[in-house]
Amino acid sequence: MNLASLDLNLITALRALLEERSVTRAGQRVGLSQPAMSAALARLRRHFDDDLLSRVGSRYELTALGQVLLDRTATACDLLERVFTSQADFDPAHETHTFTLIASDYAVAVFGAELARTVHAEAPGIRLRFQQTPTDVTENTGTLLSTADGLLMPHGVISGFPAVELYRDRWVFLVSDDHPDVGERLTLDDLRRLPWVTYQRTYDAPAVRQLGMLGIEPRTEVSVDSFQALPWLVAGTRRIALIQQLLADRLRGVAPVRVMECPYEAVPVQEALWWHPVHTHDAAHIWLRETAGRIAVPASSPPAQPRRE
């Protein structure tokens, strides 16, 4: 398809129509009269050879193609906005800008908080918005990165995109302070027989995938989308949880749990800031990456010793 032959104004009209599911409301949203929006809908229907919106009783519903286009159109609009707001120069001390970063609560606590402090001191007009990492991050990485300024994610989960290295961490386990079956050390047999609390999708963590090579498949009893909730879901139970040492240090004392060494040599966490290539030469994004790269995160603690928290 020749993009030069397309009317890019139709993209904003399409997005408004699909999200509002009303010609009148869509027109009000983009500043078009109802006749003008009706004409835009007619053009879009001819282009896609599909109704996109079909009337059901007193309301409109999306057709199957309209449902597909709903997310794609939002992504396209966000990407176009980023393209046309790109800057050749960026002065952080005087600019007003919002950066959107996708990150787990672990990354926000360990790195995001320090980044926010630095931005506050150096660029008072800059805003940071952190969004939770979705469960389908590995299936839709390109789409996800095209609508955000970056993704805080360790190596070993995604690949194929540029990244700046941030910091290194290590994995440890949490067990209840009064766990009846765990002594001074965790064993591989403990990992095999005890129930787990896991973060979202267990198999995304390289340290967990290693267990498969050892013939161990975690028996997940509870899954949660927050690393910081792990201590509370372990305390007072027979469950165990894999957690990053830096976060465990920050959560020390919040719940009656013990921090235990991994009974195998777990691959370390190498956290990075990943971005879509469309941002590579943008001055604002270059400043963000350089700022992120120079922030020093304190190294993780020495190997944990079994103790009461």
Q: Would you write up a description of this structure?
A:
This protein has eleven helices and twelve strands. It is an alpha/beta fold and 309 residues long. The strands form three sheets. Strands 4-3-5-12-6 form a five-stranded mixed β-sheet, with helices on one face. Strands 9-8-10-7-11 form a five-stranded mixed β-sheet. Helix 1 packs across helix 3, helix 1 (9-20) crosses helix 4 and helix 2 (23-30) packs across helix 3 (34-48). The protein is globular, with a radius of gyration of 24 Å.
Overview features:
alpha/beta, globular, 5-stranded mixed sheet, 309 residues, 38% helix, single chain
Number of strands: 12
> How much helix, percentage-wise, in residues?
25-40%
Mean pLDDT: 88
Shape annotation: globular
Proportion in β-strands: 15-25%
Write the layout of secondary structure elements.
Elements: H1 9-20, H2 23-30, H3 34-48, E1 53-56, E2 59-62, H4 64-84, E3 97-103, H5 105-122, E4 126-132, H6 141-146, E5 150-154, E6 163-169, E7 171-176, H7 188-193, E8 195-199, H8 206-213, E9 219-224, H9 230-234, E10 240-244, H10 245-250, E11 257-260, E12 269-274, H11 283-294
Helix pairs in contact: 1-2, 1-3, 1-4, 2-3
